[in-house]
């Protein structure tokens, strides 16, 4: 039987302030987190954090370079904290990554293997960033995948729609938060 984990990715103060469109995103994500916990599904938080001085930043990596120029993602800065509306509980795993994917520059794969997790439920900001990057890597690792599209957010609504309606269903189950909560409550 598959052992799942809910991933809450890049839901950090600065990122939320840029991407949140006032549609109730954090409330929906909070429902998914609470439902996962009630069903005994571990919640793993993933954040992007770059060391002060940015030793891991290459000028060839346009998204990371642009973020650094905008003053984002420095470890320890208030803006890199997980948003308080969805903050982890004591004992929750928080993985720090150095690139777009949860797997890049982190110990995420080690955490999954140590816990016997072979199926992921993806949420986060941005759909076209961490969600897409993590999904691509997870497909190659033969992990079971579910995406909660209304617990993902992107600054470009059309990109979000195309990814969640056209691309992601080719690789993962794509299920609204409320439908996923009903399904896990029946287990």
TrEMBL record:
<dbReference type="Pfam" id="PF00857">
    <property type="entry name" value="Isochorismatase"/>
</dbReference>
<dbReference type="InterPro" id="IPR000868">
    <property type="entry name" value="Isochorismatase-like_dom"/>
</dbReference>
<dbReference type="InterPro" id="IPR050272">
    <property type="entry name" value="Isochorismatase-like_hydrls"/>
</dbReference>
<keyword id="KW-0378">Hydrolase</keyword>
<protein>
    <submittedName>
        <fullName>Cysteine hydrolase</fullName>
    </submittedName>
</protein>
<dbReference type="InterPro" id="IPR036380">
    <property type="entry name" value="Isochorismatase-like_sf"/>
</dbReference>
<feature type="domain" description="Isochorismatase-like">
    <location>
        <begin position="4"/>
        <end position="179"/>
    </location>
</feature>
<dbReference type="GO" id="GO:0016787">
    <property type="term" value="F:hydrolase activity"/>
</dbReference>
């Amino acid at each position: 039987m598959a052992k799942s984990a809910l991933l809450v990715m890049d839901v950090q103060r600065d990122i939320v302030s840029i991407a949140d469109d006032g549609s109730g995103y954090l409330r929906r994500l909070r429902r998914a987190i609470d439902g996962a916990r009630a069903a005994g599904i571990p919640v793993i938080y993933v954040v992007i954090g770059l060391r002060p001085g940015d030793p891991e930043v290459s000028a060839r990596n346009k998204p990371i370079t642009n973020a650094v120029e905008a003053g984002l993602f420095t470890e320890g800065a208030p803006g890199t904290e997980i948003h308080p509306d969805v903050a982890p509980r004591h004992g929750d795993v928080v993985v720090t990554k150095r690139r777009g994917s949860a797997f890049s520059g982190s110990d995420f794969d080690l955490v999954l293997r140590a816990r016997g997790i072979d199926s992921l439920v993806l949420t986060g900001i941005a759909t076209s960033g961490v969600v897409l990057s993590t999904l691509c890597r997870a497909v190659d690792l033969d992990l079971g995948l579910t995406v909660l599209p209304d617990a993902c957010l992107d600054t470009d609504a059309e990109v979000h729609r195309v990814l969640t309606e056209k691309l992601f269903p080719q690789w993962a189950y794509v299920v609204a938060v409320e439908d996923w909560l009903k399904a896990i409550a029946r287990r």
